Protein 1
Amino acid sequence: MKHLALSLALALVLAGCSEEQDSAGAPPDIGAGQTIAQAQCVGCHGLDGRGTAPGIPHMAAQDDRYLVESLQAYKEGKRMHAALRDMTTELGVADIRNVAGFYASLPPLKDTAQMPEKAVSPYDKGKASAGVCARCHGEAGNSTTAGIPSLAGQQPRYFVSAVRAYLDGNRSITGKEMLRELSHVDLESLALYYASQTPARREAPATGDPAAGEPLSARCGGCHGAHGVSHDSATPSLAAQDAQYLVSAIKAYRDRSRRHDAMLTDNTDKEIADLAAFYAVQESAAAERGEITVQELAAKCDRCHGPEVANPTMAIPKIEGQDRDYLIKALRAYHDGKRGSSMMHRMSLPYSEAIIESVASHYAGQPAR
Ligand code: HEC
Ligand code: HEC
Ligand code: HEC
Ligand code: HEC
């Protein structure tokens, strides 16, 4: 499963979006609902259903069953929000149905679409930031400078941890300031972009003997993959890497100037040169296939959230034109397991945050319906 990481990331953004609850009952009394809204909700949700500050959801024209379920979830403590918990404990079943009915009956807000910039996919964002790295790491991360590592095809979790190691001072590099300027989302996006590039094949280096390196690599394959193509997102691929960089990296572990529990090595200089030559000429592969656009991503969400879906068994919220900060907060809550209950939410992935920002921008930029 080579492209596991991205599909998992999508699954995690999605997970928790499918819990069903039944909601039956009498039709709501809209007038009674409006009275409650006026007394208790207006300060935050307005009387037109508009969130009055970033992070507060809009509710106009929202699916009424979804609103009922959310209010029940706050009341039962399944969704956490102190103010709403207090308010909902005071509300009976009929009150909840009525106030939900009131907000659902309002016309969609006209001018919510926030389009400060086009929603950019994490891949494209990474590609844009990679410009400054190309000077040393080469076009699309294929380094042609001896001693400088290729980044093309590299495993994303390793990529992120390598940059962190420079920033934390656990590895040294000149030009650290450039890395410090990257935000967390930039870093995730770069990891996705580079992981998705195809590593170029390399000629045999001048020093070292690939044939002599092959048997020595038997000790490495369990972690770095057969022929140095890693299938673990935290373990770097070695295949098609610059040979001189490999030599200096292995020596750094040997003399303990670079430390990692997994990487204890006592190879001689000749063995290190042979291992590096062996790995340098291996064919590598992209760790990821991340050229996914926001539109492709949203197409997956629209299977449930889109206007064409009229699912009679599931209460699905409308998310077009929703407040961007609120969308980010909601998606993070699913991802972190703070909303919904799937165990998967607790896992962390290399680019979940970048994906969340992109889809949130996309939906916040759509007209409400
Ligand atoms: C103090 C401000 C405040 C007040 C007053 C308030 N809310 Fe909210 N409401 C919020 C915030 C913030 C959220 C988002 C909480 C979260 O992240 O779960 C929210 C979320 C909701 C949601 C979930 C919407 C969704 O898209 O998931 C519903 C439904 C809701 N409120 C209804 C009400 C009702 C009905 C009242 C009045 C009885 C009310 N709220 C009063 C701030 C408020
Ligand atoms: C001035 C040249 C230069 C520039 C520009 C540069 N790097 Fe590097 N980078 C290096 C060198 C040299 C190393 C190897 C350092 C070492 O031996 O640990 C390296 C190593 C790395 C590594 C670790 C690779 C591995 O296999 O462990 C990552 C990740 C990385 N750089 C990311 C970036 C990113 C992202 C950018 C752009 C924001 C960037 N670099 C820009 C020179 C550069
Ligand atoms: C027990 C698992 C394990 C084994 C066995 C192992 N490695 Fe590693 N190797 C790792 C991990 C994990 C890292 C990343 C460590 C870090 O972040 O510094 C790594 C990093 C490296 C790097 C740095 C790559 C880069 O891009 O900077 C090289 C080179 C390397 N290993 C070579 C080898 C060689 C050669 C062998 C066999 C002699 C070997 N490793 C055996 C797990 C292993
Ligand atoms: C299988 C159907 C399904 C798919 C696919 C799906 N969702 Fe959901 N989504 C739901 C349901 C059902 C809920 C309500 C869950 C709840 O009550 O917490 C929900 C809730 C949400 C919410 C919370 C809205 C609010 O007002 O609080 C957001 C945001 C969201 N989904 C975004 C997305 C995004 C982005 C995608 C695509 C990456 C997606 N969903 C894919 C069914 C789905």
Protein 2
Amino acid sequence: MYTGIDCISLNRSFENPPLEILKSINFQIPKGQFVSVTGRSGSGKSTLLYALSGLDKITSGKVLFSGESIHDMPEKQLNHFRNFKMGFVFQFHYLLPEITVLENVLMPARKTNLHKVKEAEARKILEDFSLSHCADKTPGKISGGESQRVSIARALIMRPKYIFADEPTGNLDSANGEKVLALFQKVNQDYKTTILMVTHDAGYAKLAQRTISLNDGQLESDTMNY
Ligand SMILES: Nc1ncnc2c1ncn2[C@@H]1O[C@H](COP(=O)(O)OP(=O)(O)OP(=O)(O)O)[C@@H](O)[C@H]1O
Ligand SMILES: [Mg+2]
């Protein structure tokens, strides 16, 4: 059994109009690898990320996490997997505006009733991300770069084995983009987290160990950066 992520002949089509978006994609990602995903707009990067993480369904093929097929998991097991094993970072950070930064970071823990247990850890993550000064503010009172770092802190609170990030630097200036990349590298090294990060930026892509590139829904290249 392969212990990382095994993507086998993955296809994703949309019906109306009929469109093949992902075309027989095959690759394996070893546990603990930091992978960037690049490709032109519309090449299928977000679709791939959602298909791999089970956020979206697939048309055919399989995605295995340590041998377990995510699209064949019963609902309860899938929810458990999502709550405890995966973290997501979206291009738009979707922080809840009415609650504090600390409470936002604790949201995934609240879902599983672990928010009390995790509070000290949430404060520690905020401190590691230079965000302690934001903990008790609402998201409307912090900057865009701070918001994006908060959304990464939120993705990390359950210490997931896998992180999926869709253009986490998309809305950031270069100083904040670099901070976000440094955080991903640190999380990857410190916790051996497997990370898949979509990016348009060739420089950021190279900071991941490996880059997978899509072209028109097909795997175009797959290179090791270091
Ligand atoms: N729900 C949907 N129904 C039909 N077509 C869709 C749907 N979602 C995405 N597509 C199409 O699939 C293709 C790939 O979309 P996707 O969002 O994966 O691209 P992307 O590589 O992430 O692009 P970007 O860099 O602009 O975010 C696009 O042509 C898009 O229009
Ligand atoms: Mg996209």
Protein 3
Amino acid sequence: MIALEETIEVSRPVEHCFRYISDFRTTLEWDPTVLEADKTTDGSIDVGTRFALRCKAGPVTVSLEYVIEELTPFHCIVLSGKGRFFDVRDIITLEDMGRGVTRITYIAQFSYRFGLEHLARQQTAGLKKMGRASVQGLARALADDNPTPTASRDTAKRDEHLPGALSCFTRFGYRRGRSRWAPMSTDMTGKHVVLTGANSGLGAAAAVSLLEAGATLTVVIRNPANTDAMQAHFTRTAGRPADFVELADLSLLSDVNELSDRLLAEDRPIDVLINNAGALFNDFAVTSEGIEQSVALLLLSPWRMTERLLPLLEHHDSPARVINVVSGGMYTQRLDCDHLIMPEGTYNGAIAYARAKRALTVLTELWAEEWQTKRVVVNSMHPGWADTPGVQSALPGFRRITQTVLRSSEEGADTIVWLARAREAADISGKLFLDREPRTTHLRKSTKEPPGARANLLPWLRATYAALSIEGNS
Ligand SMILES: NC(=O)c1ccc[n+]([C@@H]2O[C@H](COP(=O)([O-])OP(=O)(O)OC[C@H]3O[C@@H](n4cnc5c(N)ncnc54)[C@H](OP(=O)(O)O)[C@@H]3O)[C@@H](O)[C@H]2O)c1
């Protein structure tokens, strides 16, 4: 057997270190030899949780199946890994040194098969160097001091031309983006997140990640019949259900008002509000409150809910975050309040959708300017093209053509989770993100709004809301 031992001290509470390390998927963020790391068992991280890792070992790649053997909260994590040529036992001990400092001792014991131990002994120096690099990577990840996000040179260049920008929407764009990401070790325990549209697609994927990260989660869904299946899914995958479930049809502003009233009455401060619920309506329809449904659901609803919930977002030590889920489709449209509501005769679902998402992107920028003195940051994100139930039902033709390049829901939702969780994502406001990088909001000059259109948006929202046939509006 060959044993390696390294010790580091990090300025993070022992609970944060314990939670971060015991989810061994994080090895992808801190161990330079790890190429892929997946959790292969459902539920919360516990004794028996398994992980599949693919690692570089010199010129070859090896697969390792890890299982957690011991988990003594905040003190010790023991994992055993099995590979074709060797087994490894990782013993990680954590010690609370006081003043928020944790000492981590990492022991890795390698047992080789096929008489390879002799060969490995000759490589001990290299093995030790590798072990040190991994543990130093862990120290860097736990430092959680990533710089304020900026667009990489590669991204900025791709955004100069439509084909380059569109290539980023695919799963290949996601993979390219991922190769540049910094670790995300921020702990969400005690953070209250409100997430709309959590029972499907991107919302469901984001909910699972936020629950895994320890957040207190309020989900907003519209159909009570979906509650049990949604909560069973969260419990199976993340190990626990959402903490609170709220029901609201978000295309109805009366429902938005009632939901906001309930949340305000509960008086539970909100750290993150995620306006994710949405749909592309191919057929024209007007809600019972008398407005075309795309503009109601995709624009009026997040505007009204966010403004109503500001008192719950405002009083925090660290800035609260609002995340607006928009769409790459908005790159095709420019803001023009006179044409946000499409009449039946000229209605086109994709255009109505794109106009509403463009307006929500501009609203994000306006809010960021207006809230400069508040402790609330607001950003929009678009997920690229993700294979969700929403895309499957609204865009079957598009899906057929693009199926091989579509992202998974988890890949599409990643930037939602990053904006909600990463410490450095609170350093920036009023930007549009894709794959954890701020992106241009225009790919063509023709979509830049005419002077005055931005200034019209908030008055237009107030006037349009006031004209709805709902209680309280006369
Ligand atoms: N997937 C993509 O490629 C893509 C691309 C760009 C933008 N987006 C945006 O990403 C967000 C999530 O979409 P998705 O692809 O994950 O679609 P999805 O699977 O259809 O999920 C949409 C969610 O929104 C909810 N929702 C729809 N109408 C609602 C209403 N009136 N009241 C309350 N909730 C409502 C849905 O609830 P029900 O299940 O009850 O309908 C569902 O939970 C949307 O804002 C969408 O515009 C997605």
Protein 4
Amino acid sequence: MVTPVRLVDHHVHTTYSDGLATPAEIAARAAELGLAGVATVDHLAIGPYNDEPGYSIEIARIDEYIAAVRAADGAHPGVRVLAAIEVDYGPDTIDEAAALLAAHDFDFVYGSVHFIDGRVVDTRASLQGSLWVDVDAVYRRYFEVVAEAAATGLFDVIAHLDLPKKFGHRPRDPEAVEAALARALDAIAAAGAAIELNTCGWRVPAGEAYPSPAILAQAAGREIPLVLGSDAHRVDEVGADFDRALAVAAEAGYDATLRLTDGELEAIR
Ligand SMILES: [Zn+2]
Ligand SMILES: [Zn+2]
């Protein structure tokens, strides 16, 4: 008998940051989809990383956010709802972020790199200016900052590992970014962090989940645990493309995904 796969969506944004659905609406949708759980992961971006109104949770509302998620947990039998946070990593704000993490009862913490050296890589604004003149340099620097983020030891999961591909920019010479990528994966493994298979990549010009199958295979080779996340900002994106994600993960060499609701590995084949 085949046991049905009990999946968790580890990456959903709510109205407390830039998502459009409340924790209660997200929990209801997870129940409808038959997910074992869902984690709300709102953005926490400090100072220069909070570059758009409404992008980050307001620090004064973190307790209210956690309470809203706790209220949604238990509203639907069989669906665990966790309160997590997606921290925008930056070397100049990480101490303040660490203090906020220590002061609040988050179930787990995502570390995300959206900026390299003060320049955003994943918004339309990044398409202006000279950032993409040297695509390989963007990737190298991105992976260096990811390694730095992982080495803080603050993060349970490192988000969207190859985010610079969002608008279709691919390394011109994959060999030129290989060493930086390897160091990022080594740092993640050394920190004992997981990575995510983020299905949002299928909804943007990249047309491929984050990270790419090639990076996923390297992560699998290092036995870095893998969680699934949709990066949903709307109710109808919760659990999006998880079937496809499982196939990609299996193809890359993963036998199981990690479920942070109970810390168990869920076999995918
Ligand atoms: Zn992100
Ligand atoms: Zn996100």
